[in-house]
UniProtKB/TrEMBL annotation:
Phylogenetic classification of the source organism: Archaea, Methanobacteriati, Methanobacteriota, Stenosarchaea group, Halobacteria
Descriptive protein name: Uncharacterized protein
Domain of life: Archaea
Length: 117
């Protein structure tokens, strides 16, 4: 798989994870402490996804600018175990994430990644 296709798949996974975590945050209610979200199994097939106006900044990332580009993803999978995310002073634990992407095109526009160098 080409590096640019992997980058597109990772971007898609990040966007999907944020969406799923937001849904988990709404479902968790108003309790304090750690909230168990459980497992997330997601599959995206035969779709077109658009990521627009994204700005990421973190140490270790490459510095990269994308005005507009479309990536075709034939097949990609991402699996994680034991993810913890802090959102608005709350901690959410996800026991596992299994994301499968097949036959998806991703259009990325106005994206900026800053490696914090």
């Amino acid at each position: 798989m080409k590096t640019t296709t992997r980058f597109g798949a990772i971007g898609l996974a990040v966007a999907l994870a944020v969406t799923l975590l937001s849904a988990g945050a709404v479902a968790a209610g108003g309790a304090d402490g750690v909230h168990q979200v459980g497992s997330i199994d997601a599959s995206i097939e035969d779709e077109h996804v658009t990521i627009d106006g994204l700005e990421l900044s973190a140490d270790g990332l490459p510095t990269y600018e994308i005005d507009e580009r479309t990536y075709e993803i034939d097949s990609a999978g991402i699996q994680t175990d034991g993810v913890t995310v802090d959102v608005n002073d709350r901690t959410y634990e996800i026991s596992s994430i299994d994301l499968t992407v097949e036959n998806v095109s991703v259009t990325v526009s106005d994206v900026s990644i800053d490696g914090g160098r």
